[in-house]
Each structure stands twice: as structure tokens, then as C-alpha cells.
């Protein structure tokens, strides 16, 4: 009988102890949450002050903007990602509108040049044309700014994508179609030549057969509309001009 009462008392004490531990854990969790909220409030206040002080520099100075992005990425914040992904950070800094404006200008340039380049434009050319469209007062933009903005356009499903064609060269695609490996090589070689390419260059530099070079170029011409044919080239008889690899002074 005494043993039975002892077991019951021990069970009661254990239950009380577990309850106390649960209460203590709850109190600690609440304290931690309160501390975290306090730190977040302080951080938001500090960032608000920083935004008010340096907003113009972030928008107009690419070096300052890059340093700011690096600082934010170290704490997992991306205020330049646009209003949807950047949340209140983007809204508070006023960068959501800036990113949206840049995205619209990129689309404007890509669409207006699509008829001549087939929807593929060289990165440097895109930066130059967007900068001209923005004007001096809007501040300098960089390749990094354009790449970030294009990432925000991808959910539109219009095919906007940055392509690395080798040799440190980048192209921007604005149509829903993939470039195959041979086309990427042709674009890279055409850039070296100022926008034109012939079968002989691909054969000599890349070791392609004549059939492979001809098939790839004809696909770009007839299937994808990415180049123009000059059938009266004085040296090679037939040359292909690729608008996206040419520099246009507009």
C-alpha cells in the first residue's frame, strides 16, 4: 500500500516537474522572440535612416549600389529584387520602382530591336541602348544591374535570359527559344569579327566540317531568323551577318 502511494507521489512530482519545464521553455521562447523583434525593430530603424541618407547614391552610383548589395546579401536581404521579392525593404528604399523602371526599359529595347536581331542582343549593346534611353539624369547602370533586372522578368515567361557564349561575352535572349551549342559558338565568333561569319572561320578555328558549319548557319538563317545572308560577298561568295553581334549606333 505504501509502495503504491509512493509511486503515485513520484508520478505526480514528475508531472509537476514536466509542467514547470514546459512553462520555463515557453517563457524562454517568448523572451527570445521579444529580443528578436526588438533587434529587428532597431535594424529597420537603422536601415530607414541609411535609406534616407544614401538613397540617391544607391540609385545613381553603380559602385555604391554594388557595395550596398554586397552588404545586404551578407545578411540575407535583397532590397533591390523588386517590390514582390524585396518586400518592404524595396519599398522603403524606393528601389522597387527603380528596378521596375529598368525592367520596362530593357523590354522596350529588346522588343524594338527584335525584328533585326531575332530576339538576341549583345549585353554591352543592351546596356548602351538602355543607358541612352534612360538619359544622364537617371544615373549610370551596369551589366550587373541589367542581369538582376532580367532575373525579375523571368516569371513573365517571355524567354528573357542571359546567355554566356564564351570568352567573357554575354548575350540577352528575349524570345522563348533555346540556343544550341553550335549557335552559341557562332555568336561568339561573329562578335570577334564585328558581326559577320563565314563557314571557313568555323572550319579553321573550331575544326568543324563544312557540312556542320553550313547546317548551323542555315538553321540560324531559315529556322530562327538570327542572321542575314550576303550572297555576294567579294571574298567568300557567301557570308552571314548576325545583328545581335553587331554594334548599332543609334
From TrEMBL:
Record-given protein name: EAP30/Vps36 family-domain-containing protein
InterPro entries per record: ESCRT-2_cplx_Snf8, Snf8/Vps36, WH-like_DNA-bd_sf, WH_DNA-bd_sf
Entry similarity comment: Belongs to the SNF8 family.
GO biological process: protein transport to vacuole involved in ubiquitin-dependent protein catabolic process via the multivesicular body sorting pathway
UniProt GO cellular component terms: ESCRT II complex
Signal peptide: none
Amino acid at each position: 500500500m505504501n509502495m503504491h502511494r509512493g509511486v503515485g507521489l513520484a508520478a505526480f512530482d514528475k508531472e509537476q516537474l514536466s509542467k514547470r519545464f514546459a512553462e520555463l521553455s515557453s517563457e524562454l521562447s517568448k523572451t527570445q522572440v521579444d529580443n528578436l523583434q526588438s533587434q529587428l525593430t532597431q535594424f529597420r530603424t537603422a536601415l530607414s535612416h541609411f535609406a534616407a541618407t544614401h538613397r540617391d547614391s544607391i540609385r545613381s552610383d553603380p559602385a555604391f549600389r554594388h557595395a550596398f548589395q554586397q552588404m545586404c546579401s551578407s545578411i540575407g536581404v535583397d532590397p533591390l529584387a523588386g517590390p514582390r521579392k524585396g518586400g518592404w525593404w524595396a519599398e522603403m528604399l524606393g528601389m522597387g520602382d527603380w528596378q521596375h523602371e529598368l525592367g520596362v526599359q530593357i523590354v522596350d529595347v529588346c522588343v524594338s530591336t527584335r525584328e533585326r536581331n531575332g530576339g538576341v542582343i549583345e549585353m554591352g549593346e543592351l546596356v548602351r541602348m538602355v543607358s541612352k534611353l534612360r538619359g544622364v539624369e537617371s544615373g549610370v547602370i551596369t551589366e550587373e544591374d541589367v542581369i538582376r533586372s532580367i532575373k525579375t522578368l523571368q516569371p513573365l515567361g517571355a524567354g528573357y535570359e542571359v546567355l554566356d557564349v564564351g570568352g567573357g561575352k554575354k548575350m540577352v535572349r528575349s524570345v522563348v527559344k533555346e540556343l544550341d551549342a553550335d549557335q552559341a559558338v557562332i555568336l561568339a565568333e561573329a562578335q570577334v569579327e564585328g558581326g559577320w561569319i563565314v563557314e571557313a572561320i568555323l572550319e579553321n578555328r573550331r575544326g568543324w566540317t563544312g557540312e556542320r558549319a553550313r547546317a548551323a548557319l542555315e538553321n540560324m538563317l531559315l529556322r530562327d531568323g538570327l542572321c542575314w545572308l550576303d550572297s555576294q560577298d567579294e571574298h567568300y561568295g557567301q557570308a552571314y551577318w548576325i545583328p545581335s553581334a553587331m554594334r548599332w549606333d543609334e
